[in-house]
UniProtKB/TrEMBL annotation:
This is O-acetyl-ADP-ribose deacetylase. Gene3D superfamilies: Leucine Aminopeptidase, subunit E, domain 1. It holds the Pfam family Macro. InterPro entries: Macro_dom, Macro_dom-like. Its EC number is 3.1.1.106. Keywords: Hydrolase. CDD domains: Macro_OAADPr_deacetylase.
Length: 173
């Protein structure tokens, strides 16, 4: 698998699919979720609403993933996943790892060969960037998937440095 780190706005990335760090309600929000809904256009929210009325009446649980079309985005699909809210007193690393594994499983179902990820849970959900990026890189490298290219899309220099360090140390290992 080819792994790239490309700092910037994930809504501009031309991979087959981009991953959204959504919430369980799946009806938009702040952060990368808001940016993706703005860039994809109203049809994205309409498809999310249909999912909530049919297969996802109770919402999307943390650690799981579901696909929609990408509409006005350069990416053909959006894979929505829900990260765990960070808590010092409870280790939710397995749920965060599951976001990456499940997103790649959904990508395989779609036939997506390239997938871009933001740093899931590392914004509003409060996960420390170093830990979030390490879980991201380790989980993607260990995944059993047909996806050939994964692009991590840090939104800040700090996040870029954290992804680079996680990739460097995992490849040394
Ligand atoms: N491209 C790439 N990364 C981005 C972009 C962008 N356009 N915008 C923000 N980021 P967050 P979470 C980074 O808060 O922590 C929403 O309200 C951001 O700097 O978007 O999983 C949802 O609806 C951070 O490093 O997601 C949920 O309620 C990373 O993306 C909740 O926030 C993730 O930050 C999810 O919180």
């Amino acid at each position: 698998m080819n792994i790239e780190i490309r700092k910037g706005d994930i809504t501009k990335v031309h991979t087959d699919a981009i991953v959204n760090a959504a919430n369980s309600k799946l009806l938009g929000g702040g952060g990368v979720d808001g940016a993706i809904h703005r860039a994809a256009g109203k049809q994205l929210l309409a498809e999310c609403r249909r999912l909530r009325e049919t297969t996802l009446q109770d919402g999307l649980p943390a650690g799981q993933a579901v696909a929609t079309d990408g509409y006005d985005l350069p990416a053909r699909w959006v894979i929505h996943t829900v990260g765990p809210v960070y808590a010092k007193t409870k280790d939710k690393s397995d749920i965060l790892a599951s976001c990456y594994r499940e997103s790649l499983r959904v990508a395989d179902e779609l036939g997506a060969k390239s997938v871009a990820f933001p740093a899931i849970s590392a914004g509003i959900y409060g996960w420390p960037m170093d830990s979030a990026t390490r879980i991201a890189v380790d989980t993607v490298l260990a995944a059993d998937t047909q996806v050939g290219t994964v692009v991590f899309v840090p939104f800040s220099e700090d996040a870029e440095g954290a992804f680079q360090e996680a990739l460097r140390t995992s490849r040394d290992a």
